[in-house]
Structures are given as C-alpha cells and as structure tokens.
C-alpha cells in the first residue's frame, strides 16, 4: 500500500504534525508514503514525490509551514498556463494528474487542505481516485468540523498583537485599527478581539455602519477612555457595500482581499477627529509553532486519515466533533462556508461585554 500526501492552499501551523502522524501511522501498518511537492506540482513539473518514512518526519511536529511546500495556484482543473503572447489561461490537467498517480503506484491520496483543496480532492475522488481529506485553515471556515488545526495558533498570534497595541494606543490616545485574516468568516477577529478586549469587532457576517463604530469611540471618549482598539476581518463589509480587494484573481487564483482596515481607519479619523492608525497583521497569523491544541488535533487528524484509508472510507474528511475525531462525507463539506452563527454564545458574550459590531 502506498499513500500519497498533498498539502494545498495557504499553509497553517500544524501541517507538519499531520504529515508526521500520517507517515508514522502508515509505517506502523507496513505501508509506504509519498509526499507530493507543492500541492500537486510535484506530479507535473518533474520535481516528483518525496519518499517519506520515519526518518523524514523526525522532529517536525512543532514546525510551522509544510515540509512538502504548498501553493494556492495548483488546481489541476484550472491549471494556469502562459501562452506565447504572455496571456494566462486555465486548462484542465486532471487527466495528466490521474495518470501520474497511476505511474507512481499510488493507492490512495490524503489531501490536506481548506475549502479549495478539499473541493479539488472531491473532484478527483469522483474521477475514481481513492481520497481522504484532512481539513486545514487558519480561518476555521470549513464546515463539518468544530475546528481545524492552525486556527488556535492564529488566534493566539492575533491576541498577542492586540495586547501589545493596547499600551501604545492608550499612551497616545489613539484609535488602532487592526486588519486580521478571515475572507468569508470572522472567527479569528471574533475570538482574538474578545480575548484581547477590543472595543469594536467587524466581521463579514455582520455588515457594519461606520457611524455606529464612530459613535462607540465617541462614547468611550465621553467616559474618559481616549483610546480604542478596532479589529477588522479582511472580509468585513459595510452595510450595502462590498469586500475590499487588493487585487483581482488571475488565472487559477483567488481574489486577494485587503485594505478594509485602512478604509475603516480613515473614516474613523474623519468622523471622530481622533488620531487613528491602522495595521495589517497578515501572514504573521499563518506562521510559527502550532499551539499544543493544534499539534494534538493535527496529529489526531493525520492518524485518523490513515485509519480511514485502511477502512476504505474514501470520499470522506476527518473532522473534530469534540471529544471525538470522526468522519464526514466530502460532498457535505465542499461549496459551503462555516460562518459565525449570529445567535452564538460567543457573539452574545461580546455584546454583553460592550463590544460593538458596528450594527
Ligand atoms: O485561507 C486562509 C487565508 O489566510 C485567508 O484568510 C487569506 O485571505 C488568504 O489565506 C491569503 O492567502 P495568500 O496571501 O497566500 O494568497
């Protein structure tokens, strides 16, 4: 039995722990593992696959990134190809990929990825490839699982940054606006914002009115608190408005979000007259060593994925349904986004703590 492992999409702390657990669990059964480089690129560009055994995964549980590399430009169904005139078009190269799997003697694929990579995995499974998915995203927006590895680490990084901004905001009587990741879901902004005592949290699930944000800040001023921390998820939208894009998607890519934090800061400055600064925490949220929780979840996911292969549970994704690691059909996962439920206890807690969502 020879299992291929692929890591696709943006990286998340804990990927290496998944890889280690897959390899050691497979080794325990006398199976072999092959790590595909950079998503599926290794099967296209000749860089090939890495034979992974216990020696290759030693000492990587605590490391961020992925020893296999990853890419968010590696969709075999939408492969970007540059034409002689310089333009880039998308091509379906899934047939070549399936042929490469056969050539490499791969019996099953464990695909570790977020919504995009899991959708690709599902398409490959429908074409006959035995696939098990492992959910990965710092955004925590994959449905069917309570949480994903990498999310807690990202929240810890964001919380630490917000804590640090408090003292400088207070020292200068300033408003600090911090843009955090979260394309479609505001989990990182919500969890870190509450934990770090933000005054305003803007998330994609709750369109905001900038007047109400300004009013919250004026309110603080009136009660002698002359500084404020405003947390904005990159996918947050004003009422009736649109997400702010840094750049439009090229062939085989996703749109790049970014800039809403600066826009919110500019408007707060205009409306309140207060000195306002903004920063984007960006990819810091994806880096570093996974927290203990994320390591353990990643190790459990990797090990459970191999058990799913052993039981022939293809077309499924391992998932966390506390306290159990379980499986859900990939068909129930893809094309959907796990957003923050507006009636959740976490949102209610934030409101009771006096945090404004700008609504
Ligand atoms: O999907 C996770 C994520 O962190 C999003 O929140 C963010 O928009 C995206 O990755 C950015 O990815 P990249 O800069 O790698 O294109």
Write a structural description.
There is one protein chain. The model has no long low-confidence stretch (mean pLDDT 96). The chain is α/β, with parallel strands linked by helices and 359 residues long. The protein has helices at 15-28, 94-103, 115-126, 151-172, 187-195, 210-222, 260-272, 292-310, 345-352; strands at residues 2-7, 32-36, 49-52, 79-82, 88-91, 108-113, 131-135, 175-180, 200-202, 228-233, 245-247, 256-257, 276-280, 316-321, 324-329. The chain is elongated. The chain has a seven-stranded mixed beta sheet with strand order 3-2-1-6-7-14-15, sandwiched between helices. The chain has a four-stranded parallel beta sheet with strand order 9-10-8-13, with helices on both faces. A two-stranded antiparallel ribbon has the order 4-5. It has two domains: 2-149 and 290-322, Rossmann fold (3-Layer(aba) Sandwich), CATH 3.40.50.450; 154-286 and 341-352, Phosphofructokinase domain (Rossmann fold, 3-Layer(aba) Sandwich), CATH 3.40.50.460. 33% of the residues lie in helices and 20% in strands. The structure holds 6-O-phosphono-beta-D-fructofuranose. The site of 6-O-phosphono-beta-D-fructofuranose has 13 residues, from strand 12.
